[in-house]
Amino acid sequence: MRGLCLRSLNSVILRLAIVAMGLMFGSAYALSLEPELASLEPSAETGSDLLNKMTHSHRELNYRAIVSYQVGDQLSSYRITHTVRDGKEFESLESLDGSHQDLVYHGHDVNCVHPGPQLIRLFGGDEEQGFYRYYDLEVKGAARVAGREAINLMIRPRDVYRLGYKLSLDKETGLLLRSDIVNQQGKVLERFQYVMLNLNISADEPVVEDAKEVQHRDNKVGDAALLVSQRTWRPNWIPAGFTLAQSENNDEAGMTYTDGLAVMSVFVEPLIKAADGSPAIIEGGMRRGASVSYTVAFAEQGSFATVVGEVPMLTAKQVAKSLSWAAQ
Amino acid sequence: MSDIVRESLSALMDGEASELELRRILSADQKAVRSEWAELHRGQDLLKGNDQRFVGWDISSRVMAEIENDQYAANSTSWKQVFSGLAIAASVATVVVVGSMGSSIFGGAAPKVADNNGLSGRVYPAQASPAVGGVAVNAQAQGSPAGLLLNDDAEARKRFEAYLRKHTDRAAFNNGQGMVSYARVVSQESK
């Protein structure tokens, strides 16, 4: 965490330097080429511009919103509050129906960059690089969500190992106002939709009382790689484009991979035995909304593995089945 | 089936097989070759977004089975041979025509995936098609790659919820959605 944020500080200084240089050259350019510049009107944003903006806005703005979450015929709603104070994020999620379930999260350095957004920002929309090799992006005109002007963005996977996304992004801020996750057959698996958005809240907005605090997981890439070398198991197959986002070696042994939008985690636990000594774990999958899990028992290793994530079942199954253990 | 034969089949499908590779395919186990061939086509159709409904229908083995049953015709007069040949062709054609009509009548949206899969030129789809009695007929296999779905198993559901929470702790910072991702966990727990 400390290392990560030091690095972010460096990157901030670097960015400032680049901006300063850009201003110098930019003004010289503007003076000499004024007529040409006039024709370079701010054109419509590309899909990658929008996506890039989305990864920043939800962490950098102060807002309060009501958001609905729909899976099948079930609808639930939440109030989400996000503020930034002294470069740190404070965020809460309150459930508005059913039993009270409130979550808060505070103190996340706003400059901490996680591997997922990094994949989206890294190649700036270069069609053949990184994230953009695995998805087709298409800007699909205007929409109106939560009383705000929005832009639709279709994101289609180029292979069978990912899901598709229909996003509506706030025209002004880039905030994600609506997200449909669709499977390969085009069926909507789950939907998040803002129904109210207030961008005029003060940064001192109080956080929710008595809420459960969410842990900050340090997703630094270098650390993850270090821990992998100490681990005895690993998946032998993950779909191309997925990067190791996180890895722990404590009691919650798990590895998390992301391609920028989809995230999946692999967990390994000691095999549970039934009374007669046979493994009590049945191989199979679970599904809810866009989330699936697939569990495979590895009797020889006395372990079972579960892959969880917002990916097609096929992907979870193949990753779970590809696990292998290093000889000890 | 060995990886070498599989590689050769893939090459054949791409129109790049050498004579050596052709010989290798011909001398391999024919049943395995047929099912792998069907698999490769299924994978390609999936990537091209073609209709998936009938990819599991192995007409070749049915035709061969019919011809096997009709061996007696070989010794009879030629018009009988012609007639039985026509009958076989017609019966298979009927199945295909009726089948594809069904596909457009019930008009399920075909999975649409771009041609460029960004992985490799040669595709090895994941699922083995269950061959029943030498005839690979399983048009439904594509729909449920999951195998057993444990949604009704209380223990499995409990584990799923716990894993989903741990996963969301990691996913929320990486999926571009942030804290909203926790709705997936909370909506489930408050049920």
From TrEMBL, chain B:
A GO term for molecular function = sigma factor antagonist activity
Q: Which stretches make up the Anti sigma-E protein RseA N-terminal domain? A: 6-76
- UniProt cross-references to Pfam families, sorted A to Z: RseA_N
* Protein name (Swiss-Prot/TrEMBL): Sigma-E factor negative regulatory protein RseA
Species this chain originates from: Zhongshania antarctica
